[in-house]
Write a structure and sequence with these properties.
The protein has about 425 residues and is an alpha/beta fold. It contains ten helices and 21 strands. The strands form five sheets. It has a nine-stranded mixed sheet with strand order 4-3-5-6-7-8-9-14-13. Strands 10-11-12-15 form a four-stranded antiparallel sheet. Strands 20-19-18-21 form a four-stranded mixed sheet. α7 runs parallel beside α8 and α9 crosses α10. The longest helix is centred in the N-terminal third of the chain and has 19 residues. The protein is globular. Bound molecules: adenosine-5'-diphosphate and zinc ion. Adenosine-5'-diphosphate binds next to β7 and β12.
């Protein structure tokens, strides 16, 4: 059973729908300053698009295009048609703003509701949104989707674990939306308070908004006593609700009636072979206020080949391994922060938080990993600590092929941010 029949559309019907919507989207785009000059220069019109694959006739849109035409350059409707804006959290530089018409808000809420239904949430369930509200789409985006599905929605916002716990208990919350790094932190908080997580009513956590490994998901599930589902989205494509795991937890269905999805080789711009990892590129098909064509997300993933057991026909994306621009080059080796997380989270001695620091020693770039250690292992015996430090160093070296400095710190001693976790700190520019 699906929330909407479109989730099970046969591929041919899905592609026909995509084509129809792509034509309409191109026509809308021609009303914006940015696309009318870009598509106009190429002489492209809706008639040139007769299959989803014709999308390759279009140039890519990049984050710099959005910044360069900030704030209104991509708007396609008269100003009085817009009812909301959001801005990306600016993880990697100047933020970009996305403007929504009422139609856009409505169709976005429908996509989010679909995702929530797919994990098993149902009308009448109580749902607590533990992510920040405001310009960040994880607040209102999830909120409107939850209301659309008919969930009793608790807009808790981020942080303040004591209050979160009170709300979870008082209202017998069934499901939450929470950023994975905060979920891990919340697990430590529950332990500290002596709370058995299985005494809570919750069964579902939607986790997303930042990269995290399968190891981190496993920990979240174990420590919080619930099932955690990966949820992917980005402001440029509305926000959450772009791709989501169903109850099978076997990759994230990306809603292909609302987006055309491509995976390209970031260097050549060509499509990679089916199943290969590359950069995710997305086109909106249902947006009227600010459609975006072939947006280079910089997120790395792949299509999971084959059909899902749930029988939804929309393809699945694999866990995002990071952004193309997350990659660190240390001593000639390419390192992604998620490799570090994967190694750390698989070690029982390691607690829930870590940070990677880059610094210079002479002319050489060096990597330091500060690792929180669980209380039971943070002992006074120097020999035990040194041997643990060596063990972690070796495990990391096997994974990233560089020997990092490893610093063991007490659990809960690395500062937490309210929103997305800061996993990499670059100290190299400092005098
Ligand atoms: P910013 O780009 O400033 O962080 P957004 O809030 O729009 O602003 O964040 C979207 C980005 O967050 C995505 O492009 C992706 O890098 C990351 N992200 C979101 N959800 C996930 C997820 N489930 N797994 C990995 N990364 C994610
Ligand atoms: Zn499925």
């Amino acid at each position: 059973m699906y929330y909407e029949a479109a989730e099970g559309l046969a591929r041919e019907s899905l592609e026909r729908l995509q084509t129809e919507r792509l034509k309409r989207t191109i026509a809308t785009c021609l009303r914006s300053q940015f696309y009318s000059s870009r598509l106009g220069a190429l002489g492209l019109s809706p008639d040139d698009f007769n299959s989803p694959d014709d999308i390759r006739k279009l140039p890519f849109t990049t984050k710099d295009d959005l910044r360069g035409n900030y704030p209104y350059g991509l708007l396609c409707q008269p100003m009085d048609q817009y009812v909301r804006l959001h801005a990306s959290s600016g993880t990697t530089g100047t933020p970009t703003a996305i403007f929504y018409t009422q139609n856009d808000i409505d169709s976005w809420a429908g996509l989010v509701a679909r995702c929530m239904y797919a994990v098993g949430l149902r009308k009448g369930d109580v749902f607590q949104n533990m992510s920040g509200y405001g310009l960040f789409t994880g607040g209102l985006g999830i909120h409107y989707g939850a209301e659309r599905l008919g969930l009793l929605t608790v807009p808790a916002g981020a942080g303040n674990s004591k209050r979160q716990l009170k709300l979870l208990r008082d209202f017998h919350v069934d499901g939450v939306h929470i950023i994975p790094s905060y979920a891990l932190h919340f697990a430590s908080f529950l332990k500290q308070e002596g709370i058995d997580p299985t005494s809570l009513n919750w069964r579902f956590a939607l986790i997303g908004a930042e990269p995290h490994t399968e190891e981190a998901r496993q920990r979240i599930q174990e420590l919080l006593g619930l099932k955690a589902y990966n949820s992917y989205g980005l402001t440029e494509m509305n926000g959450p609700g772009v791709a989501f795991e169903c109850e099978k937890q076997a990759g994230m269905h990306v809603w292909e009636d609302a987006y055309i999805v491509e995976i390209i080789n970031p260097d050549t711009g060509e499509h990679v072979a089916e199943g290969e990892v590359g950069e995710l590129v997305m086109t909106t098909l249902c947006r009227t206020g600010m459609p975006i064509l072939r947006y280079r997300t910089r997120d790395l993933t792949r299509f999971i080949p084959g059909a899902c057991e749930c029988s939804r026909t929309h393809r699945r994306l694999d866990r995002i391994t990071g952004r193309a621009d997350d990659m660190l080059i240390i001593k000639g080796c390419n390192i992604y922060p998620m490799q570090v997380e994967q190694a750390l989270m698989s070690m029982p001695e390691v607690a829930q938080n870590y940070v990677i620091e880059l610094f210079k020693e002479g002319e050489m770039d060096q990597l330091r990993v500060k690792v929180e250690i669980k209380e039971d292992y943070f002992v006074e015996d120097m020999r035990a600590l040194t041997s643990l430090q060596k063990k972690i160093t070796a495990r990391l070296r096997d994974e990233i092929l560089v020997t990092p400095r490893v610093e063991l710190v007490q659990h809960d001693s690395i500062p937490k941010s309210e929103g997305k976790a800061v996993r990499v700190v670059d100290l190299r520019e400092k005098p």
